[in-house]
């Protein structure tokens, strides 16, 4: 995570105060930085705040999968640039009856409100599918990319974000490190992820990374 931020905003001059050993992955098959391409559609509320229900549903399933894999809800934070998206995610999480208290312990917030806070796992919902919007701001992008201590899971639209120079760099980094997932169907991916205990660590990571090109979403 820090390598991307360092190259984007600090010209490689940022020094890590914590070693990789001190912040090892919580799940050995889960990349520390990963981009999930979700082909949803942005919509707008009367207050001009955007939301994307495809991302909302995917994020709910993603959180359920993480908790099913042993992650505590209090370790997870979900951030987005738009209040409408924040409320959609929060309300749907609150309506989920499975996993009880762990689901309710997940923090959902806007990027601006989350400044100064951190979580072990951050899920970032980018929302927009036509124009990049607020997330084009270098300051907001810096905050969004640096809230995760161990894992940053970015959920967004490839076609939209790749038009932006900064986001194009992030996506290229994820692709180069086999941490890019085409999420055409959220359900199949979730079922595969929940089977992670049935195979070795290497096989788990391979299945996770390759799920978008192996027929798992068909």
SSE layout:
Layout: H1 2-9, E1 33-38, E2 43-44, E3 50-51, H2 53-68, E4 76-80, H3 83-95, H4 100-104, E5 107-110, H5 111-114, E6 119-125, H6 138-145, E7 148-156, H7 158-161, H8 165-176, E8 180-183, H9 186-194, H10 201-210
Helix pairs in contact: 2-3, 2-9
Structure overview:
By secondary structure, the chain is an alpha/beta fold. The protein has a single domain, classed as Rossmann fold. The chain has helices spanning 2-9, 53-68, 83-95, 100-104, 111-114, 138-145, 158-161, 165-176, 186-194, 201-210, and strands at residues 33-38, 43-44, 50-51, 76-80, 107-110, 119-125, 148-156, 180-183. Strands 5-4-6-7-1-8 form a six-stranded parallel beta sheet. A two-stranded antiparallel sheet has the order 2-3. α2 (53-68) packs across α3 and α2 (53-68) packs parallel to α9. Mean pLDDT is 79; it is low at 186-201 and 203-218. Residues 1-157 form the DNA2/NAM7 helicase-like C-terminal domain. One of its GO terms (biological process) is termination of RNA polymerase II transcription. Keywords: ATP-binding, DNA damage, DNA repair, Helicase, Hydrolase, Isomerase, Metal-binding, Nucleotide-binding, Nucleus, Phosphoprotein, Zinc, Zinc-finger. It is found in: Nucleus.
> CA-to-CA gap between the ends?
31 Å
Oligomeric status: single chain
**What CATH architecture would you give?**
3-Layer(aba) Sandwich
Q: What sort of overall outline do the alpha carbons produce when their principal axes are compared?
A: globular
Spatial arrangement of strands, main beta sheet: 5-4-6-7-1-8
Radius of gyration: 16 Å
Structural class: alpha/beta
Helix content: 40-55%
Order of helices and strands: HEEEHEHHEHEHEHHEHH
Q: Please give the count of helices.
A: 10
The CATH C-level class name: Alpha Beta
What is the average per-residue confidence, as pLDDT, rounded to a whole number?
79
């Amino acid at each position: 995570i820090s390598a991307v931020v360092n190259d984007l905003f600090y010209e490689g001059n940022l020094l890590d105060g914590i070693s990789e050993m001190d912040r090892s992955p919580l799940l050995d098959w889960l990349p520390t930085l990963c981009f999930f391409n979700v082909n949803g559609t942005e919509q707008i509320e009367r207050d001009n705040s955007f939301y994307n229900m495809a991302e909302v549903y995917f994020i709910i399933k993603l959180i359920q999968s993480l908790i099913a894999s042993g992650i505590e809800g209090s370790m997870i934070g979900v951030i987005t640039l738009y209040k409408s998206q924040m409320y959609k995610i929060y309300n749907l999480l609150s309506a989920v009856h499975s996993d009880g208290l762990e689901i309710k312990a997940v923090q959902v917030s806007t990027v601006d409100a989350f400044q100064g806070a951190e979580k072990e796992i951050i899920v970032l919902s980018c929302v927009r599918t036509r124009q990049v919007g607020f997330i084009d701001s270098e300051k907001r992008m810096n905050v969004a990319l640096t809230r995760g201590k161990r894992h940053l899971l970015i959920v967004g639209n490839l076609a939209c974000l790749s038009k932006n120079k900064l986001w194009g760099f992030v996506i290229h980094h994820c692709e180069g490190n086999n941490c890019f997932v085409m999420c055409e169907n959220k359900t199949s991916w979730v079922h595969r992820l929940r089977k992670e205990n049935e195979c070795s660590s290497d096989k788990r990571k391979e299945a996770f990374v390759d799920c978008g090109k192996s027929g798992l979403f068909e």
